[in-house]
Fold each of these.
Amino acid sequence: MPTQRQMRVNSLLQQEISLIVQRELLDPELTLTTITGVEVAPDLRTAKVYASVLGEEAAVELALSALKRHRKHVQELLGDRLDLRYTPRLTFVADHTPAQAQRIEMILHHLAQESTEAETPEDSADDTSSDSPPHPSSPAGEEE
């Protein structure tokens, strides 16, 4: 489990790298790229940067290669902006979580549609029939 310092550095790195990618790296391959998270090592010398890219797998690969090309420049900018003893060495990794979440959401939506289509008015009319025996509160035939 990350320490408080690691969590603060993770958050700070995510904010700064996001700003750098959005505003300073004028690479067209990075237009639909979002920095979704950062995990810094316990010694704060290395960090995994998770990037999500909107689009097909080819767009993801292009964006990751662009991020890897700009890695040193991003690290230099971080070194200038942040007051850390060491500027972490960045490793960019594709984050497929948003795509997986969208896929799961589509499956759940599809299942919900199927269940509402399977329910018909005839089915609900059968549920209200009075053929079921009443729940006995006292043994049958006993009167007081």
Amino acid sequence: MTKSKLSVFVSLFLVFFSGAVLGAFAYRLYSVNTIVATVPPRKGPGGPEEFLRQRMAEMRDRVKADDQQLEQIKRVYNETRDQYDRIRQKMNNEAHAIDEDQVAKIKAILRPDQIPIYDQIRAEHEAAHKLRMQQRGNERK
């Protein structure tokens, strides 16, 4: 090989090698790693009463609130919980109405012989949903 052919070969090799190195670096830089998040189990039985007890203990021990302040703070927490309960109930009622409207619209599209099959599928989905909710409830306890 002559000197010029060798320098061309070496130059091409370096260009392709540097491209491969840069490509590998870019792939590593932009590749997405999957992260699995785990929810730590709740301590104690949980629920609104436990939440209130913990918050009140913090206010008493860390903030050094007196008895009168603690009663007022407890009233605020209870009022807030009642407001959230009303909002959740309203949302649940509205969601139920939307679901029922969806079912009625789908049934209007289906033939009479398809409706029992659709009802069976809905029952299966609802049972699976209830099971998931029970499992979530058991995980939190």
Amino acid sequence: MISVVRSVVLSLLVLRLAVFASGNGSSLPAANKYVQYSAKVQQTPWKPGTTGTLLLKLTPQQGIHINTQPPIVVILDDSSSITLVGKPKFGTVKADTSVYLDASKAIRQSFTVARSAAPGPLLLKGTLTYFYCSDAEGWCSRFKQPISVTVTVVK
């Protein structure tokens, strides 16, 4: 019995190493094949201490919708130069008793550039988490979309 368990564990380890060696074991998820994504900042450049808006656009395929519950969440990677202000703001559409993301409009997330930020390019990096569902097939899934946008800081 122990040798069977040992063989299974060894096989799983070899499989994981093969996936990692092929480049598919990176920490970034594959693109969501059901939802297209884009990100940009509303204006540029910023002076230290000013507030800007990150625009996140999710465009689902026909028959897919983005749920607003559980909430759409934006989290920044550790950064002392950029902080989020409030929660993401977005339009909604109603379908029967459900409320979905209005995919014709961008999700808006405010942020502040720290007063101590040095002039030059600054990477706004984080994760957008959302839930999307298939209307016809009746399934839902969570997706964690990496965010990476350059913000220019001036004096």
Amino acid sequence: MLKWVGTVLCVLIMATSLGSFVVGIGWLGFGPPWRNVFVAKGKVWVDTSVPWDRGWYVFPAEHYSAVKVRWLPALNRATPPGWWAFSLPFWIPLTAAAVPTACLWWRDHRRIPPGRCQHCGYDLTGNVSGRCPECGTTVGK
């Protein structure tokens, strides 16, 4: 079950990342102090600029055409004093979700069901010899 949750999470992160190059979405106006959250250009931004109006905004990605696509997180301090912006590229949360999900899939794939040889996976139904006929491994009864 957990491997499927991780898989869905990875697909959602990837779809959000790719979609953010076409359209951006953000919530302006958590605060005060003001906190704005954006998803655009392959990253999540949080900043402290004063919002135009509180609420949800959808905008074309070209709105942020001056913003470079960066591979590393960035903390930018802006003027006036006290304003800042933090950006987190989507590859970081995608990797954080994909690595444990891949491990869960790998572990589940390697699990040999009961009634089979634990060494080679041969079906031991009806075997009374105590040895796997495929690989010769001694099997418990």
